[in-house]
Amino acid sequence: MSAESANTQATAAAGDPAGAQDLAVARRVLAAESDGLKALAASLGGEFVAALDVIAGATGRVVVTGMGKSGHVARKIAATLSSTGTPALFVHPAEASHGDLGMIAPADVIFALSNSGETAELADLVAYAKRFRIPLIAVTGKGQSSLADNADVALVYPDSPEACPMGLAPTTSTTVMLGLGDAIAVALLERKGFSSDDFHALHPGGKLGRRLMKVADIMHTGDELPLVPPDMPMSEALLVMTAKRFGCLGVVDAERRLIGVITDGDLRRNMSDGVLSRAAGDTMTAGGAAVEPDRLASEALGIMNERAITNLFVVEDGRPVGILHIHDCLRAGVA
To answer: Environment class of residue 18 by beta-carbon count within 10 Å: exposed (0-12), middle (13-18) or buried (19+)?
Structure first.
């Protein structure tokens, strides 16, 4: 939608009583949910830390469960935990009573969500946790409830009104549950020192995976590298450049350190000076741009764009271990 269209629609909505009412409802909903999150943040204390300790100390997985809307939130929390380094799965409480309790192991932690704390379908899960001494963390809006009373740690969020005008549809409560799940996941992530490398290992696909791709993931290595010694005649060096098909050469010394680069531009600039009779070391541009293999591919692309070049040598301790072409970045979707 263009800015002009958006402004036109906004103006129409402002002048339309029905549209104005819709906007007022939307803002009221968001304000109610925002107030719920603020109250949750202010209420966090020792129980939150205790829940983190239980999860961090477990050798198994976090089994997240809930019924109805709480179940939908539980699925998202399980996905967020798993993607940030805390293995988790969702178990439907009704299915748990019909065999899926077998998915829960003694080394696991159960993370149960229920706004009322009296969800009947959770009863068998709670009993199973007690029987096999599986830690149970409750997330509920009612501190005086069956779920909270039977939990090892009860995370009780403040009583905030639902955004629904009847106070019935789960809105603020589910937003608060989701926010609490995110807070747990990120706090665990930071405790573990979960890095961007770890994140990439769990998110290899999609735009996020491409953003985290390293130079080492897409560089050319081994015999593909166009490398020559500084004393090689340019008549021979040109044959190497043609065979390797990168349009450039890396000049390396006796210790195989990169000391310079020869590009198509260098050849054109030196053509009138009898370039073919000279040595590679006399034609090269000393130094030359290079990058380390553990740098993000997006950083390497930025260097190439900034210097208006199409290739970058990849070095470790000054020695070439790869070469990256701008087309490699584009094919990989790095931008």
So the answer is: exposed
Q: For the chain, which domains are there?
A: 3-194 (3.40.50.10490), 215-331 (3.10.580.10)
Q: Using a cut of 0.85, tell me whether the model's pTM lies above it.
A: no
Q: Which of 293, 283, 297 is nearest to 320 (CA)?
A: 293
Output DSSP code: residue 288: -
Token pair in block for residue 105: 């192991």
What one-letter code names the amino acid at 37?
Answer: L
Q: How far is CA 230 from CA 78, 259, 280, in A?
A: 58, 9, 5
> Rounded to an integer, what distance in angstroms lies between the CA atom of residue 63 and that of residue 15?
50
Sign of the C-alpha dihedral, residues 6, 11, 15, 17? Answer: positive
Closest CA to 141 of 155, 130, 156, 153: 156
Task: List per-residue pLDDT tens for the chain, 335 residues long.
Answer: 455 555 545 554 455 777 888 999 999 999 999 999 999 999 999 999 999 999 999 999 999 999 999 999 999 999 999 989 899 999 999 999 999 999 999 999 999 999 999 999 999 999 999 999 999 999 999 999 999 999 999 999 999 999 988 888 999 999 999 999 999 999 999 998 877 666 666 666 665 666 778 899 899 999 999 999 999 999 899 999 999 989 899 999 999 999 999 988 878 877 766 778 889 998 888 987 899 999 888 889 999 999 888 999 999 999 999 999 999 888 888 86
